[in-house]
Design brief:
Blueprint lengths: L1 H13 L10 H35 L7 H20 L7 H24 L5 H37 L8
Amino acid sequence: MLLRCTAWLLEAAIESHEHDAEQDEPADQIEKNQLAAYVAIAVLIVPSVWMFAMHQARTGGSPNLPWKWLGFAGMTAIVFGYAIRACRQSWGKQKFWALLGRFFAVHSGLGVFVLLRVPVVPLVLYAVLTALNTSFSAAYLVFSWMVSGKREDQKRAALGVGRRGDT
């Protein structure tokens, strides 16, 4: 499980969506679910952009978009989207969501803190920051997962209980 979650660092850059000629029904259902998710995201994004444009037109606001905030939102979506997608087998585990939630809180807090103090952030900087943030999130998830796993092993050893599946 640990290796699967970290493999996304390599797969994220070179991933392809090649499918076998024969697909089984669960794969078809997954593709339908993904399509539904993409449509839902588009249904949320397009009206949001439209409403923002209408608001800007009505209030005579600046035609410039808040690029630093949009860049930060995009970077956040990429970093956490890849982490969530790569660790699909951990979705049912509360520990995974707790670790990811903690990282999201720190990421958001630092991002807002920095962006409130800087007038402009070049968009090209987000490419570098996204790569660094993705690497850091993978390292954080792996390290935290290993540390919490060692604690569980120590508790089991103290109680004289083996891991699940041990006989």
